[in-house]
Design goal:
By secondary structure, this protein is an alpha+beta fold. About 30% of the residues lie in helices and about 20% in strands. It is built from 8 helices and 14 strands. The structure holds 2,5-anhydro-1,6-di-O-phosphono-D-glucitol (AHG) and manganese (II) ion (MN) (2 copies). The site of 2,5-anhydro-1,6-di-O-phosphono-D-glucitol has 12 residues, from strand 4.
């Protein structure tokens, strides 16, 4: 009996594509490209592999638990947060492609040391997302966002960081789950790579990811319901099918935004972190979490709003500012915009 044709037509030995080769091929689509952006992505993939190793061995090495210091958000930093932060800085600071960096874990801009050359891009990142989940072996992630330098000097100023998300030239995330995946976009679709732990290579596994128009999953922390205002409560009731106006979505909430977002990107659905009376701007950070994931989601055919504005159109005023967010399948996010605009 002949083999059934495989749905994945590139599933042959000859079409194995490493992330390095894919990045180069993408760059060739832009004849004027300097190669700097490709170099940054390459360095981020290396940092991701190093962090993946640390996360994998977290249960064995003495890196579990908190470092005892509070980060700028007033949250206790987990040790792996600091290691991941340092890993990214050290992988990226000397390449001559960045004018500066900013991290969720660091109060001020991270300058490029004076002994290194600089470049025309600015990198923002959440080194370890979902870090409170590390101790219980739940997936965590890394999120990154790349902006063009806006100012003219060779070192970045705050103005370079405070650009709206629509100006990102690339964004991505790494999920340290049952396998490690890196998903990124440079504005030409969204592509996912799975780390082959034996080869130590990210291999193209999810080319051109598209998020379903309607979602199966709803990811929201319902323990805040008592602090939500009425329109948010009505919206979540609608998503859950409780008002009889749509089919109920399946509630899934990991508590690591990367993991919740990744599942919904592949399976369809919406991730929501609304404002509530105790957190009037929600919890998630515009620059390190919301902008990069909104960029990826839009590139995959989805949408992201804070309830009234497109996330990517928000002009930031502070490095660590927070925003409510509804991100995911277009139809489900549009439902949020409609119901919350009516408030
Ligand atoms: P981080 O670990 O980078 O501080 O991010 C944690 C975030 C995010 O990953 C997750 O979606 C959210 O916190 C969960 O918050 P709640 O526990 O309030 O639901
Ligand atoms: Mn985070
Ligand atoms: Mn974090």
């Amino acid at each position: 009996m002949p083999d059934r044709p495989s749905r994945v037509v590139r599933n042959t030995a000859t079409s194995v594509v490493t992330i390095e080769r894919f990045i180069i091929e993408q760059e060739e689509l832009h004849p004027g490209a300097s190669g700097a952006l490709s170099g940054i992505l390459y360095d981020l993939a290396l940092a991701a592999k190093m962090i993946a190793n640390k996360v994998r061995s977290a249960g064995l090495a003495d890196v579990l638990g908190s470092a005892g210091e509070e980060n700028v958000q007033g949250e206790v930093q987990q040790k792996l947060d600091l290691i991941a932060n340092e890993t990214i800085v050290k992988a990226l600071d000397h390449g001559g492609r960045l004018c500066g960096m900013a991290s969720e874990e660091v109060d001020e801009l991270i300058p490029i040391p004076p002994e290194f050359r600089t470049g025309r891009y600015f990198l923002l990142f959440d080194p370890l997302d979902g870090s409170s989940n590390i101790d219980v072996n739940v997936p965590v992630g890394t999120i990154f966002s790349i902006l063009p330098q806006k100012t003219a000097g060779d070192r970045a100023t705050l103005e370079d960081a405070l650009q709206p998300g629509r100006d990102q030239v690339a964004a991505g995330y790494v999920i340290y789950g049952s396998s490690t995946m890196l998903v990124y976009s440079t504005g030409s679709g969204v592509h996912g790579f799975t780390l082959d732990p034996l080869l130590g290579e990210f291999l193209l596994s999810h080319p051109d990811i598209r998020i379903p128009e309607h979602g199966r999953y709803l990811s929201v922390n319902e323990s805040y319901e008592q602090h939500w205002d009425a329109p948010v409560r009505d919206l979540v009731r609608r998503y859950r099918g409780l008002d009889g106006k749509r089919d109920a979505m399946n509630v899934r909430y990991v508590g690591s935004m990367v993991a919740d977002f990744h599942r919904n990107l592949l399976g369809g659905g919406v991730f929501a972190y609304p404002a509530n009376a105790k957190a009037p701007s929600g919890k998630l950070r515009l620059l390190y979490e919301c902008n990069p994931l909104a960029f990826i989601c839009e590139q995959a055919g989805g949408a992201a709003t804070d309830g009234t504005r497109r996330i990517l159109d928000i002009v930031p005023t502070r490095l660590h500012e927070r925003t409510p967010i509804y991100v995911g399948s277009k139809a489900d996010v549009d439902m949020a915009s409609e119901m919350l605009a009516a408030q």
